[in-house]
Amino acid sequence: MVPAAFVPGVYDRQAPGTDRYTGCVILSATSHIVIPAQLDAVPGVALEIEQFMKAAGFSDQQVLDMQLAVEEAITNTIRHGYCGSPGTITIHGKAGPDLLTVEITDHAPAFNPLCTPDPDITLSLEKRKTGGLGVYLIRRVTDTVEYRYEPGKNILTLTKKK
What we know:
Layout: E1 10-14, E2 17-18, E3 25-26, E4 29-36, H1 42-55, H2 60-82, E5 88-95, E6 99-106, H3 134-141, E7 144-150, E8 153-161
Antiparallel strand pairs: 1-4, 2-3, 4-5, 5-6, 6-8, 7-8
């Protein structure tokens, strides 16, 4: 687990096994992170994803894919959702035997990234506009991407199969 002093935010992780308080069997591992809407918090999230996914048995490529997807999603939220205003982003991960689910929640203005059209990657670099690849990359490196809006919050759910 990333020490709280490493990056601003709150980190909590539960491994599969037996709950030390209730004695109940836990079939999936979970990770819960709350970070401020600041770019300097992004590296800590990437490190937590790496440690969490490796402990759950995901391959290096699967880890890199999910790190890229989550980094793109939270960076877009910080830059385009909060636009420099204070706020928080919650990242909740759940790893089962064959699937990782990451839910990213923010309180920025409503925005469905899945409505963003894919960029025309057939254009030469000179003819492409700067930016616009984040959502495209998220779609390419995850197995599913879902968006929903609940009063006051955007929720983006990403999954990755083993």
